[in-house]
Design goal:
The protein is α/β, with parallel strands linked by helices. The chain is built from 13 helices and eight strands. Helix content is about 45%, strand content about 10%.
Length: about 280
Amino acid sequence: MTTRSYLYFPGCKIARGLPQYGSATRAVLGALGIDLVQVELNCCGYPVRDENFLAAMTAAARNLALAAAHGMPLVTPCKCCYGNLKHADYWLRQRADLRQRVNGLLKAEGLAWRPGVRILHLLTLLQEEVGLETIKGRVRHRLDDLPAAAHYGCHALRPGYMTGFDNPLAPTIFEQLVSVTGAMAVHWPLRLSCCGHPLWEKDKHFSLTLMRHKLDDARQAGAQVLVTACTYCQLQFDGVQLAHSADGEALLPAVLYPQLLGVAMGLPEADLGLSANRIPWVSG
């Protein structure tokens, strides 16, 4: 198996709040011949984009400049990070004034943003770089008869002309990757709507309402598990769902995609961090 190297950008939330996403990502990609190189990077810039656009673009550009200096594509499992890195790449290509200001700030470190760094989300890497047939060949324990709801998250899909992740109105990448495990990707009308987590600090009631509508929709579609590939979405559907469920309410387990795939590949559950999920999922 040929090993390929990518600069790994976990983002800020994984180490502190969702370490199982990092361990599962490393376990699955390592088994597929992907070497994740980790260096000291900074925040992607997303949390301040609405407060200070220049700061957000500079933070993202610094990470892209470091990826260029290491001569590697950049891959992230966080869709919010992916979205902001793609935002920055788009606007730095479009606006000469922004390029000049950002590179002026990066110059003190001997860095500069230049076009050409490939930015990949974990799902994109799996579909486009590894390939569905290769993944299918590594599946040892097919998850047949498991109805699964693939939850896309917002920031990788929109705006589509910036992110280039998939068709923002009718994406298929996640369902394809779920299906390769043997699980059945159910159709559910709210699959593309917001999980509600970005609103948590502003309006908890509205955030919970959005989450509950989505969970009800997934259940009505017959899903026995909800599959995520976004740090924020997993925190919402796992920890927040558990903490704010009513007594006796049936919980819908949320599982990170590399956990689902890792189980199908026969990887040790300890490497996938399944026990760290707040709502248990029994893979069968």
